[in-house]
TrEMBL record:
The lineage of its organism: Bacteria, Bacillati, Actinomycetota, Actinomycetes, Kitasatosporales. SUPFAM superfamilies: Enolase C-terminal domain-like (SSF51604), Enolase N-terminal domain-like (SSF54826). Pathway: Carbohydrate acid metabolism; D-glucarate degradation; 2,5-dioxopentanoate from D-glucarate: step 1/2. This is glucarate dehydratase. It comes from Streptomyces spiralis. InterPro entries: DgoD-like (IPR034593), Enolase-like_C_sf (IPR036849), Enolase-like_N (IPR029017), Enolase_C-like (IPR029065), GlucD-like (IPR034598), Mandelate_racemase_C (IPR013342).
Length: 424
């Protein structure tokens, strides 16, 4: 029998990287996005990497979990999940921004467990000389397609230098943003983050995209900013145009009412974000596509479990993304490579990140024709750049942000701003 690989040390480093003024249904992104880099080291000197959110409550729970799993074998992932659940003792968090649904005690455990599971798989892959996708059943594709992720945005954060994307506030700006993203990355699917402008303007933007990209699958995601009636109007206006409509309205009941009449499938990363939300969604036929995300579905194995459930119940599977760095992109790519029914191009915020800012040694991951080649090196196939990690940690300390708060930031800039779900 092969030897155990016991965890001797866990390092959790919060980092901040520049984020443009991207608008969404709850406000605007702050000048920096926060992430935590997890390094898990074993008694044989192998270190594995994970990446996750870095809000204060989450960091506190990560530290509790890190103490609880020290001494465990990286092969004991089931017991590790249980150990973390016990250590958290029912502590349940919130996503702070409200874009990823209700957070319950069990989904908090999944969020906390996820980066440790990824790091353990990285270690196991490194020890065995195999890529992580091989530990997930093997790659069924050697490249993973991602979609262009368009945002309405300001030219700059007030008081900051403009970024080089410029403002995007009109259908013409959105088409220009799409053209650049497709030119630079080769994306073959396009998602527009909506819930920002009145719905008729967002419909106009999608129709302009359809004209500019006649054959490209298009998606619109207003993060539950619309009533059922508004959602149905948009669904009628965009019949035959959208690949799927993502979270038009809040809650499974509202989604089911829209789904009964809308011609296109409805997708979600808001009303089904944990295993215990699946049965009611299936019974009500509230959604036809679930967006997986290993960061909150409990890591790579549990995301594959989600994929199996979706397959069994005839649900489509896509992938959600927040602002992220290269460790997450590598994990997303391995997972998607090993998940046969993940047939939609995955979301990624990657193009919004300054290419000079990451915590991994550059060169391991690149976009060609809108897809990322699955790394073939052992583990995740990416290496930590310690100087870059130190720089982005320094930036975290300096920037003063400790929790993602799109609404609070928007209100500081515009005190009349109100968070309203649904808004239209
Ligand atoms: O619903 C979604 O796809 C997201 O929540 C993705 C991101 O959180 C996005 O909306 C954002 O960061 O503004
Ligand atoms: Mg969404």
């Amino acid at each position: 029998m092969s030897e155990a690989l016991r965890i001797t040390r866990v390092d959790i480093t919060p980092v901040a990287f520049k984020d443009p003024a991207l608008l969404n249904a709850v406000g605007v992104h702050e000048p920096y996005a926060l992430r935590a880099v997890i390094e898990v080291t074993t008694d044989q000197g192998i270190t594995g990497l994970g990446e996750t959110y870095a809000d204060e409550g989450h960091l506190r729970r990560l530290r509790t979990a890190a103490d609880a799993i020290t001494g465990m074998d990286v092969h004991e992932l089931g017991p590790m999940h249980r150990r973390i659940a016990q250590a958290l003792g029912g502590d349940s968090g919130s996503d702070g921004h409200g874009l990823t649904g209700m957070i319950t005690t069990s989904s908090t455990v999944d969020r906390v467990f996820s980066p440790f599971e990824v790091a353990c798989l990285d270690i196991r892959g490194r020890a065995a000389g195999r890529p992580v996708c091989d530990l997930l059943g093997g790659a069924v594709r050697d490249r993973v397609p991602f979609s262009a992720y368009l945002f309405y945005k300001w030219a700059a954060h007030p008081g900051h230098e403009p970024d080089d994307w410029g403002a995007a506030l009109t259908p013409e700006d959105i088409v220009a943003q799409a053209r650049r993203m497709v030119r630079e990355y080769g994306f073959t699917a396009i998602k527009l983050k909506g819930g920002v402008m009145p719905p008729e303007q967002e419909v106009e933007a999608v129709l302009a995209l359809r004209e500019a990209f006649p054959a490209t699958p298009l998606r619109l995601d207003p993060n539950a900013a619309w009533t059922v009636e508004t959602s149905l109007k948009v669904a009628r206006d965009l019949e035959g145009v959208l690949e799927y409509l993502e979270d038009p309205t809040p809650g499974q009941e509202g989604m089911a009412r829209v789904a009964r009449e809308a011609a296109m499938p409805l997708a979600t990363n808001m009303c089904v974000v944990a295993f215990d939300e699946l049965p009611s969604a299936v019974r009500a036929d509230a959604v036809q596509v679930v967006l997986s995300d290993h960061h909150y579905w409990g890591g790579l194995h549990r995301s594959k479990l989600l994929a199996g459930i979706c397959d069994t119940f005839g649900l489509g599977l896509s992938m959600h993304s927040n602002s992220h760095l290269g460790i997450s992109l590598a994990a997303m790519t391995h997972l998607a490579a090993a998940t046969e029914n993940l047939t939609y191009a995955c979301d990624t915020h990657w193009p919004w990140k300054d290419p000079a800012e990451d915590v991994i040694v550059s060169g391991a991951l690149g976009f060609h024709d809108g897809s990322v080649a699955v790394p073939r090196g052992p583990g995740l196939g990416v290496e930590l750049d310690r100087d870059a990690l130190a720089r982005l940690h320094e930036q975290y300390l300096r920037c003063g942000l400790r929790n993602r708060d799109d609404t609070g930031y928007m209100r500081r800039l515009d005190p009349t701003y109100e968070k309203k779900t649904p808004r239209w």
